[in-house]
Every structure is written in structure tokens, then in C-alpha cells.
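Ligand: phosphoenolpyruvate. Inputs:
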Amino acid sequence: MIIQLQKNISSADIKIIYQTLEAQKYSVTKVNTQFENYLICIGKVDIDIRNIGHLKGIKDIHRVSDSYKLVSRKWKTDYTKIDLGNNIIIGNGTPTMMAGPCSIESEEQVSKIVEHLVKNNIHIMRGGVFKPRSSPYAFRGLGIDGLKMMHQQCKKNNIKIITEVMQVSQIHEMIDYVDIFQVGARNSQNYNLLDALGEIDKPVLIKRGVSGTIEELLHSAEYIFSKGNERLMICERGIRTFETIYRNTFDINAIQVLKDKSHLPVIADPSHGIGIREYVPKIALASLFAGADGVIYEVHEKPEEAYSDGQQTLNFMESENLIAKINTVKELL
Ligand code: PEP
Ligand code: MN
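Predicted complex:
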């Protein structure tokens, strides 16, 4: 059960609500986000919510049977929209595109990509500077200097930045240069990181774990929300299955299921989802038709020379064709 509290509720009224719930053996967790104050109430007995809803200081009360609560769609009639400023709103019915290289490599690389984004009306640039790599000998990113370089060029061109944060200690040094923090697949269940991202007021995109279930992803999102950050989106990026012919098995089913189970925007990552350049545009389109609110994909001037993930990265022509196709089908979505 979720209780939304009135902002100006007195401590005496809160006490009465707690006492009423505790009398029914309910455990109560108070959650204050940047927008609302909630009580998350978990118990075994079935309470008649009318016996609680009349108490002073309660704005609304919702029965939520899912094990994740705040990210569930059961209590919220509207879908969540995330406003990044400059009229860039994720989840407002038009697909949000986020594109950029797997890794930030150089000033020149960034400027070429920024130019490509501007030309194609893409307002959010992706690009990793702290890279989780399967091998410790592979390129692991330019770190904070790479992020500052990216920020300088994006700011001049009104482009927002999404980049991966790998550990709690990086949040503070990154926060002024980031518009959306990305939690990568490998960190999808790093609960200390999720807690810390719940305590800041910056949007977070959380990816599904390498072998993560849909429910695990929703619980990971619940960690962030329950620490106070409602500006969240969830990302399908493929999972590991017995199939080895492509990098991951992109779970298109998950997109509809996530839209049904949660009010959070759902973003598709076809680049990591399939891992093969020539298939990425079709999977991107399929994701939008399946209900995704946006697509994040990798693009590079010369994918064959990219420091990481070149095999799944679109070149400028392929990226331009994808955007053109999306524009022609926008009305149908
Ligand atoms: C990435 O976006 O570059 C990345 C490492 O993705 P994932 O966490 O999905 O593997
Ligand atoms: Mn990548």
C-alpha cells in the first residue's frame, strides 16, 4: 500500500497514521522525493483502506499488490515524464533519441559526433568515460577529463549528456557535467550505487542486468525511487541466453511488459541488445513500435576505428537513415 501525504502534514497527524498502521502489524517506510511524500506500508492482513484514507494529512491512498511499489503503475494513472529543460521531455509521446559513441575518445571525435547530432535534431548525446570492460586490458575510458571535454562541446550546442557512472565516489565529480546518469547492466544490482543515485536530483537511466529479470530491474528502480529520486527511466539492453549468434538476446517483450507494470519511461538500447551494426536500425524501429519511449544507440564517424563496440556502432549515414525512417513513422507510433 502507498499513502501519499499532504506536504504540510503535522507530526501529530503522522504519528496517528503510524499508530493505526502499526496496530495492524504493518511496517512503514517514509519516502520523501523531490516531488512528494509517501508512506510505503507492507503487511500481511488485508486492511480496508477506507479506515485509513480519512485520517488527517493523507492526500491519497493506493493498494499496490506488486512487490515493487513506487515504480508500479498500479497507483499512478499518468506515465512519468522527465523534463530535461529546453523543451526536451522524455515520455511525452514522441520518441526520444539518444546517440553517441560507446566511449569518448578525443576532442575531434566528439566534435564530429556533436555536428552529426545537431544536423539530425538529436538532443541527447551518449558517451562513456568510465567504461566497464570485460577485459582489464581493453580501453577503459578517458575518465572525468573526457566528460569535461564532452560537456564543453555539448553545452555550446544545447545537447544534453547521458553517461555511465560506475561507483558512488564518481557521482560528486560528475554531477555538474551530466544531465542523465546511466547505470550500466553490470551495476544494475549495485544497491549502494542505486541508493546514492536516489539521493540526488538528476535523472537516472537504469539498464537491465546482463542476466536480470524484469522484476529485478523494477526492484532496482525501486531502490532509487525509495531513496528520493523520482526522475527515473528503465532500459532494455538485451540479456544473456543460450543464443550465441548475436551479442545479447534483445527482449522486445520486456518493453511492453515494462510499460504495463511501471509508469516509468522505457528506453531501448538496440546497439548492446543485438550487437551487430546492420541489425541495429531495424531493432530500434521495432522497439518504438513495441512501445518504447526512446532509443539509445551508438554512432561514430568511423565505427571500424572506434576504441570500443565498433561492431555494433552505426556510421553517420546509417544513423541519418535511421532518424529519417523514425520521422516517417512517427505518426503511427
Ligand atoms: C554502454 O552503454 O556503453 C554499456 C556498457 O552498456 P551496458 O551496460 O548495457 O553493457
Ligand atoms: Mn558500448
